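Quick one - inputs below.
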Amino acid sequence: MDPHPPDAAAPEASPAPVKLEFSEVAKSFEHDSQTVAALRPVSLRVHAGEFVVLFGPSGCGKSTLLNLVAGFETPTSGTITLDGKAIDGPGNDRLMMFQEHALFPWLNVIDNVMYGLRWEPGFRFRPHARRRKALELLHLVHLDEFAKSSIHELSGGMRQRVALARALAPDPKVLLIDEPFPALDALVRAKLYIELQDILVRTHKTIMSVTHDPREAACLGDRVVIFTGRPGRIRSEVRVDLPRPRDINSPEVAEHAGRINAQLEAANEEPSGSEA
Amino acid sequence: MKNHPDRRHKWYVLGFYLLLFAVWQLVFSLELAPDYLFPSPLQVARRLTELALDGMLWPSIKTTLSRMAIGFTIAAGIGLLIGLLMGVSRIVNGCLKSLFLGFQSLPTAAWMPISLLLFGLSDHGIYFVIIMSSVAAIAISTSDGIHRIPPLYLRAARTLGTPAYAMPVRVILPAALPGIVTGIKLGWTLGWHGAVSAELIKSSVGLGYLLYMGRELNDAAQVLGIMMLTILFGLLLDRFLFGLIEQRIRRRWGLAGES
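Output:
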């Protein structure tokens, strides 16, 4: 299950071990007795502690790839491994922070954050340990005083922070983020990007996220993988070596965003170009 | 939270009822029918006071309500369980949905003859009518509530490691709560119909019995008075108990518009 030595094809020889490995992963869906390819064979490596952003237009298969990692769907061909083990169904070693907030309205903030710990080996039957961990995470996302609030009392930005805390609670090996902060106003978003990076630096999480916003990609990613559409495939990669936390409104981020966008546009002009 | 258009609306409602009583009194004073057939609001109020002073009224209300409390609790338990099964299994849903929709088209009073045959004049028959009148509505609303759960909740629950055995209690029932409460509310109303109809025929105490006695004694004031009380208690519990719970849940679940 481990075909290649870790850093054989890694760009700019990253020292960290490979966390996620996609080899020739393809996905097609049955639609009206027709097979529609959503994702052409994709190979990609994500290293431990790396933030990889999948960037591309809607319908390019980037969300499909994320769902494959989460285990909601299974690849039509190819394999995905996490720490060398093939992925088989959903599991809390790969947690998804959803596009819309998927917090449970019947639980208050802290119960939402604790929810995923209930079945964790170290936390089973230990409600106090669960609560302690949840409080730590709420502190990390600056929501200490909202532990007892109900979800509907929170603003959109606060809900996303609770969702982040909930996804971090079971200490997943990989955090998956599907369009992190779509329905928020620009000011709140800019602040959340800083916070998110701050948290990530502290937790050293391996992260894959999906976006169609080049600025978001440049702001968050160590590496931005550019997809082209229908069926999706990887067009190229852009490395972003800016110090963190990065401000989404800074000129450096804007410059990288421009490069990322240019790659996508170049790809659209040559519809069936080939790239490994 | 409540703003003034709401409060003004309340005054209109109060005005409407005052007008209704005024019209009633007016029609009465035209003397179109003798007063033992068409009593005035005052006569109704007087008769209700008499019943209350005779110690007839309060025990009757208490009996009907306690019958409802027992019968409806059983109905809610059965309805929730069947609704849960219908919600998680397509096959169970396919089989039971048409049957329960059929039950719902049956007037509650139509359960009386079979109840008399099965249970005679015992109280069990009243519980039977209450349960049969309300179980279908509760089960159908519960299963509909489960079918309407946003798939996002289920996905989130699965990634967060919820084992299959814990799903009903931890996720499915709470997520379906808005639908369940609607079902409980509807079931309560139907059960109330059932309870009063059953008491009409086979009881010696209760609101339905007082209604029946009123007719036996040609006492239109008592009949109207008890009808009004039946409406009042049905409405109070529906609106103010279940209605408020439903409103709170809908707001918390983000289903109602927050102003």
